[in-house]
Design goal:
Strand order of the largest sheet of chain B: 1-2-4-3
Number of strands of chain B: 4
Bound molecules: flavin-adenine dinucleotide
Distance between the termini of chain A: 34 Å
Largest sheet of chain B: 4 strands, mixed
CATH superfamily of the largest domain in chain A: FAD/NAD(P)-binding domain
Strand order of the largest sheet of chain A: 5-2-1-9-20-19
Number of helices of chain B: 2
Strand content of chain B: 35-45%
Strand content of chain A: 25-35%
CATH superfamily of chain B: TusA-like domain
Largest interface: A-B, 26 and 22 residues
CATH topology of the largest domain in chain A: FAD/NAD(P)-binding domain
CATH topology of chain B: Translation Initiation Factor IF3
Shape of chain A: globular
Oligomer: heterodimer
CATH architecture of chain B: 2-Layer Sandwich
Chain lengths: 400, 77
């Protein structure tokens, strides 16, 4: 029996195991192959919806689905987190009872989460739309009470998931306040350690004029060092300050704790992989996809998806001896909502720089379609649409 | 003084600047960050970053499509 272990049952874990279970359905039936997800979570959340919960009041329950409904046929789940992994001896130890599980192949897709420990005072002062749906909903409760003052949004540290999301927060806060006729009493300031409001120039060219139009102030090259929740002041590494009344910053993110200190991760715990076939350096039976790896692209669901498709294809090919090897193109596609039913997309690959795409209602509609099909897409039901949409970026047939 | 060697080769915008900003957070005044990249944007972007943060751009080199930017950290409080 060939045992495939998937650590993490989020976006990357679910899409990859769904493709694997489809490609290896015969082998699973004949008990030649098993696929097991390890993740203690019983419920998954649609993370891009956290912004809707924070700035439009979408109820947290609307973003949730029970994990058991999301797992594809033939895939097993162990509801326990991975405590450690021994790649050389092909073994995972789970947190629950320190159980040992052997594997022949392993895929790590354990995502990333806010790391408040890097910025003193931030946890006490901040409300974020990254931790989970409930935490995001606190922003909306606060937003409804704001009568005047300054909201500060933006990037407190790097890296973080979904690069456009701090900008979306600025636009969505602005839209909420305008719709409620409160904007003239409330200032919005966006802070970022980058030299531009959006780091990729073509997108910056699109959104910078919108910041002026909407009267959203910006402070570029602001490297947040600490926050004083009592005085409501953010101080930068260079000693500059920004005052706030309400703080909705994007914290720097960290990978799952068990990865830190392993020889296959960097000093912060991001897993070192080949950026084209996603195998973990020196281990051709181990892979890391999605937010947890160290490849030079955005940490976004689209990447987790397209990387997962590549890994599942190649792994199925190893098992069956049929098919051809695929490679990840580095394709990114993050939507950036600019408010009032408009959105742009940050689109690029390893070989093509980010494109200049103007915000339109059609883009916004595309984003909404993705929300509608998200859960079914984790079962692989819409691969025909992704294939059509991403065209030559869906996967590459050679590594360069 | 610590030297931070930051390998951003093979990463495109905003990769090198992201890596620079992450190294800068860990560094202290007087430390040196050596940023290596293949993205030609690294030179103007690093220049702009140094100018805006008031850190010191010590040197930039190009050799066969590989760029090396040396920065001295001077702007921290
Ligand atoms: C506000 C916001 C907006 C976003 N917008 C977009 C967007 O527009 N487009 C886009 O493409 N992406 C977007 N994303 C990003 C997207 O949600 C993530 O990039 C995607 O979920 C990454 O998939 P993943 O599998 O790497 O991680 P996740 O989906 O986060 O899954 C990780 C899983 O690993 C599990 N886990 C953690 N530690 C362990 C352990 N030790 N053992 C076992 N399991 C473990 C967790 O419980 C979790 O279930 C957005 C995210 C946010 C927060």
């Amino acid at each position: 029996m060939i045992k495939i272990a998937m650590i993490g049952g989020g976006a990357g874990g679910l899409i990859t195991t769904s493709k694997l279970s489809a490609e290896l359905s015969e082998e699973i039936k004949q008990e030649k192959v098993s696929i097991t997800i390890f993740d203690r979570k019983e419920t998954q959340e649609f993370q891009p919806g956290y912004l809707e919960t924070a700035f439009r009041g979408t109820k947290p329950e609307k973003l949730k689905r029970p994990v058991d409904k999301l797992i594809s046929k033939g895939v097993k789940i162990v509801h326990a987190n991975c405590a450690s992994i021994d790649l050389d001896n092909h073994q995972i130890i789970t947190e629950k009872n320190q159980e040992k599980h052997d594997f022949d192949y392993v895929i790590v897709s354990t995502g990333c989460s806010p790391d408040y420990s890097q910025i003193p005072g931030l946890r006490e002062a901040n409300m974020d739309f990254y931790t989970d749906a409930e935490v995001s909903s606190r922003i909306f409760s606060t937003l409804q009470t704001i009568k005047s003052g300054r909201i500060v949004v933006g990037i407190a540290g790097l890296p973080y998931k979904c690069p456009p999301s701090p900008n979306e927060a600025a636009f969505m806060a602005d839209e909420y306040l305008r719709r409620h006729d409160m904007r003239k009493n409330v200032d919005i300031t966006f802070i970022t350690p980058y030299t531009r409001i959006y780091t990729a120039e073509p997108i910056n060219e699109v959104i910078e004029p919108l910041y002026s139009e909407r009267d959203i102030e910006s402070r570029t090259v602001f490297n947040t060092d600490s926050v004083d929740p009592a005085k409501k002041v953010i101080t930068s590494l260079e000693g500059d300050t920004v005052k706030y009344d309400y703080l909705f910053l994007t914290p720097p993110h960290k990978p799952a704790a068990f990865l830190k200190g392993t020889d296959f991760a960097d000093d912060e715990g991001w897993v070192k992989v080949d950026k084209r076939d996603l195998h973990i350096t020196d281990h051709d039976y181990a892979f890391a996809i999605g937010d947890t790896n160290n490849i030079p692209t955005s940490k976004a669901g689209v990447e987790a998806h397209l990387e997962g498709i590549v890994v599942a294809n190649n792994l199925a090919m190893n098992v069956t001896g049929e098919g051809t090897k695929h490679f990840f193109t580095g394709r990114t596609q993050c939507s950036m909502e600019t408010g009032f039913h408009h959105a742009t997309f940050v689109v690029g690959t390893y070989d093509r720089p980010v494109e200049k795409i103007k915000p339109t209602v059609t883009n916004y509609a595309e984003k909404k379609v993705m929300e509608e099909i998200y859960w079914a897409s984790l079962h692989g039901h819409y691969e025909w649409l992704f294939k059509y949409h991403f065209k030559r970026d869906y996967f590459a047939e050679s590594p360069s | 003084m610590t030297i931070y060697n930051v390998d951003s080769k093979g990463t495109a915008c905003p990769g090198p600047i992201t890596d620079l900003i992450r190294a800068y957070r860990k560094a202290s005044n007087g430390d040196i960050i050596i940023l290596q990249a293949t993205d030609p944007g690294v030179v103007p972007d690093s220049k702009a970053w140094c100018g805006m943060t008031k850190n010191e751009l010590v040197d930039t080199k190009e050799n066969n499509g590989e760029y090396e930017v040396t920065i001295k950290v001077t702007a921290k409080k």
